[in-house]
What we know:
Strand order of the largest sheet: 7-4-10-2-3-9-8
Shape: globular
Number of helices: 5
Distance between the termini: 38 Å
Number of strands: 16
Amino acid sequence: MTTRQPRTWSGPNLTGQTQVNFIENFGRRVLSVSRVEQITPRYRRVFLTGADLDAGFPYVRLAPTDHVKVLFPQPNTREVVIPTRTEKGWVGPDGATEPIFRDYTVRGWRPETKELVIDFVVHGHGVGSAWAASAEPGDKLGVMGPRGNIVFPENYSWYLMAGDESALPAMGRFVEELPETASARVVVEVADAADLQRLTDRADVEVTWVLRDRAGDGGLERTVRSILLPEGDDWFVFAAGEAGALKPIRDYFRRELGLPKERVVVDGYWKRGIANLDHHAIDLDAD
């Protein structure tokens, strides 16, 4: 009987498609806020540190969708409960209440200061938004994962990125880590002009903002469809955000334009009307 070995990946990804690196040690950390940056009125960047990061963090270049489970303090005790994964799901220590967690993209890792960076959208509802709105140095969070790195290809000359504010951490990181030989077009849908922020100073990256209060429903898809795409096959698409808004964008590239699956990554981070959605359960390729 053979033992199935986990997939590993290292080095620059020149394969033209995403590659997976599974992480054997699933990190379980209790961290403290070291500082907070107010990027826009509804967007906060939180820096986390602590002894559990002394050994480092599995941050890999061009893995912009890597995410962790963020565990929030219990409402009554303000303690962070770190659960254990069992056949019955996530189970807390004996006597502990059910852990409160959400998935968040890893925005960055600062090895020189041993700080993990996570961006929060403060939209006025939900446990993550409520915590981030008042976060200050010394506040505690639990962070588990990631389980692996999804390493994006870097051998294309042009990239299209599209999504709503939930995808900003991934798109911002993707833009920062693109090879110098590549250019990109980025389309971001946000609530209104107050949410505009500087994503990059690169001259070869063009950013278009879609304001929901002006564009209305479907503004992201219409803007994506209006973009003049390169000829040939030397380009790659990444889109993320609300699942319902992404399905027609996925169909545009895969069905209407006929792009192969390896050149289109579309990820539903959330779904309207569903709290704490497991985005792994969303299959935008299903009919």
